[in-house]
Specification:
about 170 residues; alpha+beta; Jelly Rolls; 3 helices; globular
Length: about 170
């Protein structure tokens, strides 16, 4: 536990609280733990029993994680990745406050289900996606998401994290 805490840059006490069910980690924390353990992030989340050739998640069985301390974003895991899988799917419920900067380089496909989403990149670029728009990109710089109209639902499909960006390296707005 000490080595995991050090590798994930978390306190040993926090990891203990996660392990005993006293704390629920944020999506960012799950990614940090998965990176330290060398497994897909979804492998750290509970899911219904799975066959080896597919993993089915029925309506109402998906795990929803409320970002903390970012209550402006809820994340629903659409399935659980197994070792060797190259894809994870999520539904993001966004508010008008910007989400945390996403520090992982990974291939992503985003599709706006409802509302509009502004994707702000740490290099100063930004894109607006409206309902029905999609974006397929290799996240080579940190990014964050905002729903400028107050609420948006976004489908995200992501490949495995390839590396972590050094957030201090990027000139970006707060």
């Amino acid at each position: 536990m000490v080595q995991l805490a050090e590798a994930a840059d978390l306190s040993q006490g926090f990891i203990s609280r996660i392990e005993t069910g006293k704390d629920l980690p944020s999506v960012m924390t799950i990614y940090r733990l998965a990176e330290a353990l060398g497994c897909p992030p979804a492998a750290l989340m509970p899911s219904p029993a799975a066959r080896s050739d597919y993993r089915l998640v029925r309506s109402g069985e998906a795990l929803t994680i409320r970002e903390d301390p970012q209550p402006q974003m809820d994340v629903t895991l659409l399935g659980r990745a197994a070792p060797g899988d190259q894809l994870e799917g999520y539904i993001y419920e966004l508010g008008e406050q910007p989400a945390e900067w996403w520090p992982y380089r990974q291939e992503s496909l985003l599709y706006v289900l409802e509302g509009a989403v502004v994707i702000e990149f740490a290099n100063g670029e930004s894109l607006r996606l409206d309902e029905g728009d999609s974006l397929h990109f290799d996240q080579t710089v940190p990014a964050r998401f905002t729903a400028p109209d107050g609420h948006a639902r976004l489908l995200g499909c992501h490949g495995p994290p390839m590396e972590r960006h050094d957030l201090d390296r990027w000139p970006r707005t707060s």
